[in-house]
Amino acid sequence: MSSSKFVLIFLCFILHCSPSVRYGTKDDKPVLKSQTLFHSSDIMEGRASYYGKQFHGRKTANGEIFDMYQKTAAHRELPFDTILKVTNKANKRSVIVRINDRGPFKSDRIIDLSYGAAQDIDMIGEGVAEVSIEILRLGDAD
Fold first, then answer.
1. Rounded to whole angstroms, how far apart are CA atoms 75 and 1?
2. Strand, coil or helix: 113
3. Residues β-bridged to residue 67
């Protein structure tokens, strides 16, 4: 097999296995699907998890001390201080969070919520929930 065919097959495999995240806007106008181009009012859908006690009191990626009871979250790419509305799709409960950390580190998840935020949308028992995330205000670039 030629190296160009191998590269093409490898790229198709990587793209096919990437997490299922849809980007759009409130009024369903198409948006570039690049995970690095975000706009205020963008909407993302995927799986959320949460973190708490094991990180309580440690520094977050932006240098703050993590408080598991605050309404904060970790996202791989959104700028710090971005404000999001996260809605649990199963029960329609929502919480407003601020990005202050990086993660999640599992490829099938799009956001890690603090314990306090996860409590607000009633996902503590399951540990993972299907969510919709709306960007309310973008933070400054990191």
1. 39
2. strand
3. none
pLDDT digit string (tens) for 68-100? 999 999 999 999 999 999 999 999 999 999 999
**Pairwise pLDDT comparison (18 vs 108), residue with the higher score:** 108
DSSP string, 85-136: EEEETTT--EEEEEEEE----STT-SEEEEHHHHHHTT-TTTSEEEEEEEEE
Spans of all domains in the chain: 21-137
Maximum Cα interatomic distance, the chain, rounded to a whole number of Å: 54
In CATH, what number does 21-137 get? 2.40.40.10
Residue linked to tokens 């409590």: 119
What pLDDT does 38 receive? Answer: 73
Dihedral sign, CA of 97, 98, 104, 108? positive
